């Protein structure tokens, strides 16, 4: 079992180094630096609150589902970050490419990835044609977290799973 964990950790680091190092390009750096904020608290909370209040049906209902999923999804994130205090890759791996003011709290799981999936999955479930637009956006936000040196692939995967599962449960259990 220990051998498997070591191999998974090595794979995680190799994938991280590929995304963070080999994919670097000036245009991507600018684009991903800004797109990553689509998974941030300011954007996700503001967008879901405003859409739930101001958007016409069925968008307002989908936004309300997203808002609830967003709020609920961050409970397991906060718990897991306390239980598994993983050091961010830019602090653990000296050759990591980073950008302005990188975060220094724990990296596992990715809160931005959790947020973007918890917000987009209810919309994709309730308004299926949006999947072609929202799924790539959610995947880009997750990838941006690695590109910016803030998360390992397993952090992003865990965030995507937590956000998606919370979103799916929110829609499934909605009264």
Descriptive key words:
mainly alpha
Brief overview:
The chain is 73% helix and 0% strand. The chain has 175 residues and is an all-alpha fold.
How would you describe this structure to a colleague?
With 175 residues, the protein is mainly alpha-helical. The chain is built from eight helices and no strands. The protein has helices at residues 2-22, 26-35, 41-54, 59-83, 89-92, 111-126, 131-147, 153-173. Helix 3 (41-54) packs antiparallel against helix 4 (59-83), helix 4 packs antiparallel against helix 6 (111-126) and helix 4 (59-83) packs across helix 8 (153-173). The mean pLDDT is 94.
Class from helix and strand fractions: mainly alpha
Mean pLDDT: 94
Low-confidence stretches: none
CA-based shape: globular
Between the first and last Cα atoms, what is the distance in angstroms? 43 Å
The main β sheet shows up as:
none
Query: What's the number of helices?
Result: 8
Count of strand segments: 0
Helix content: over 70%
Secondary-structure element sequence? HHHHHHHH
Q: Beta-sheet strand percentage?
A: under 5%
What Rg is obtained from the alpha carbons, in whole angstroms?
16 Å
Secondary-structure map with pairings?
Blueprint: H1 2-22, H2 26-35, H3 41-54, H4 59-83, H5 89-92, H6 111-126, H7 131-147, H8 153-173
């Amino acid at each position: 079992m220990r051998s498997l964990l070591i191999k998974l950790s090595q794979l995680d680091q190799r994938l991280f180094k590929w995304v963070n190092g080999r994919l670097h390009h000036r245009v991507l750096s600018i684009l991903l630096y800004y797109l990553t904020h689509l998974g941030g608290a300011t954007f996700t909370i503001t967008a879901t609150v405003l859409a739930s209040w101001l958007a016409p049906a069925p968008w307002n209902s989908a936004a309300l589902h997203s808002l609830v999923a967003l709020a609920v999804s961050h409970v397991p994130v906060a718990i897991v970050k306390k239980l598994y205090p993983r050091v961010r890759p830019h602090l653990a791996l000296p050759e990591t490419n980073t950008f302005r003011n990188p975060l220094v709290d724990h990296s596992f799981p990715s809160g931005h990835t959790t947020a973007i999936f918890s917000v987009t999955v209810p919309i994709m479930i309730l308004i299926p044609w949006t999947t072609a637009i929202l799924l790539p956006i959610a995947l880009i936000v997750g990838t941006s977290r690695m590109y910016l040196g803030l998360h390992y692939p397993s952090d992003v995967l865990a965030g995507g799973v937590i956000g998606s599962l919370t979103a799916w449960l929110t829609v499934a259990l909605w009264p």
